[in-house]
Amino acid sequence: MIENKWDTSLYENKHSFVWQYGEDLLQLLAPQPGEQILDIGCGTGQLTAEIANTGAVAVGIDTDAGMITQARINYPQIQFSVTDGKEFRTDTPFDAVFSNAVLHWIPQADVVIKRIYQALKPGGRFIAEFGGKGNISAIRQAIYTVLSEMGQFPEKLNPWYFPSIGEYASLLEQQGFDVTYANIFKRPTSLTDGDRGMENWIRMFGNHFFVGMTSEQVSQAIAAIETLLQPTLYKDANWIADYRRIRIIAIRK
Ligand code: BEZ
Question: What are the beta bridge partners of residue 251?
Answer without folding.
Answer: 125, 178
